[in-house]
Amino acid sequence: MKIAIVGYGRMWKLVEEYSLKRWNKIAIIIDPSKWTTIQDLLSTDFDVIIEFSVPKVAMDNMRFYAKNNMKVVMATTGWYDKVEEIKTLFSTSSWAILWSSNFSLWVHLFWKIIENASKIMNKFEDYDVFWHEFHHNKKSDSPSGTAITTAEIILNNVDRKKTLITEELAHRPIKPEELHFSSTRWWSIPWTHSVYFDSLFDTIKIEHTARTREWFALWSVVCAEWLKNKTGYYEIGDFVKDLV
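-> structure tokens emitted (244 positions)
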């Protein structure tokens, strides 16, 4: 398979490494350090784009891909308020997109655990639920896309929680129906996501810690291979269904 990499940071090097390890070819790398631009894709023969860029360019890039009938694995985070527009662009088309707030397979297993735990804890109103995450200080979005997806899972399965709160509660107590998600950005700490179910008597903690970026690169390549012969709009859950 011929892969085009769109990257504005460290991830494209890992994507290149794992693409070659899986016997794919690199058609082009779009990065300022390579003196290439997204327009160069128009004159390049490739099958699927893998993009790890930044939120401020991701939306314009996706519109460009849709306009020019390109397939893309979108691994850039921080643009989810525009997801309905992207769904419209790709859902009835001959091109394709697969996106996720997190490309680690293990995070998706973590989400399945949180979903099942939330359904159980929905029956036990003595337990409150909250979240905290740690990320390195180069992380561009807060809360992370992983946090937002986790919050949606909890809100869909714990009836007593109605509203997500991500800002600091400095001047009032939290309301019982509010779900508080807090974030810390700190030096080079591993990505750590923790969900707590807390009562007067005990605390249940479910936690996922990622120690390397390599999982994200590897699974983005596997997703690209999966997307090659597909058209339309996909979320990573569609890919995961083929695995579990």
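The domain at 105-210 is CATH 3.30.360.10 (Dihydrodipicolinate Reductase; domain 2).
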